[in-house]
Design goal:
- The protein is mainly alpha-helical and 289 residues long.
- The chain is built from 14 helices and no strands.
- The chain has one domain (73-280): Vanadium-containing Chloroperoxidase, domain 1 (Up-down Bundle), CATH 1.20.144.
- 66% of the residues lie in helices and 0% in strands.
- It is elongated.
- The two termini are 51 Å apart.
Length: 289
Amino acid sequence: MVLGRLKTGSPETAPSAPVADPAPPPAPGSEEERIAKRAARKQTARDAIRELLLVASLFLVYKFGRGISGNEDAKAFANAKEVLTLQQDLHLPDESVVQHWFMQSDALITAANKYYAFVHFPITVAFLLWLWVRHRDHYKWIRNLLAIMTGIALVIHILVPLAPPRMMPGFVDTGMQDGSSPYSGVGAKIANQYAAMPSLHFGWALVVAIGVMAVWCNRDPLRRAGSRLIWFHPAITLLVVVVTANHYWLDAFVATILLAIAMVIVPFPDRSPHAKLIRIIPAPRAPSR
């Protein structure tokens, strides 16, 4: 009898609780569907405003920080001489030679100045908007990469002031010549002229290329081609920052290192199926326990 009672009361024989059926979706055209769509639009608007405020705040902090170290003339020029000497020791191409070669063509110099002044920021903003609308999981990843890389760059700008090549003997400030320099007029008053290292023009261009490749590398042939062609953007940006004498080769190298650090800190989106990019950029290892 005891065994019978134990068997009867065991969990294996207890009746299972009924599982409630999932709520059916609202019928098309019904009041419930209109309410759900209205709530979704409001949530999207709130998300957009929050992201806009976040990105704007980060940008303002960066702009304010760049203006902190504006009176480091002697140190900035001493650091510039050291960078030029180091580049010579590394047998890197002489930026002044590259610049003077391009200056033989007014059209090329004008195009380089316009690219430096008017492409860098708009293309990054357009890229972020595209990710936010179409690829939200990748947007968060890219936004965090940009935030970390830019934050570290700001610290370097403050601690290591560096005069750009355009301020050094043997170089020409091409932007000042045709009036397209972002560092003249009002820009000269609010911008830190000694924030050459790292080159965020190049660093942000790299992030754009990596983000487009992450989204498109395993799609249809047209978008796969686009994921390769986008690498012309950082390549052209690197050439432009040198030709306009706004950055050194090493400025781009340091920006690449900062991006690598940010990619270790910020993991790749978990649900991404893009095996090609994962092979190129390995996911950070989980810490051992």
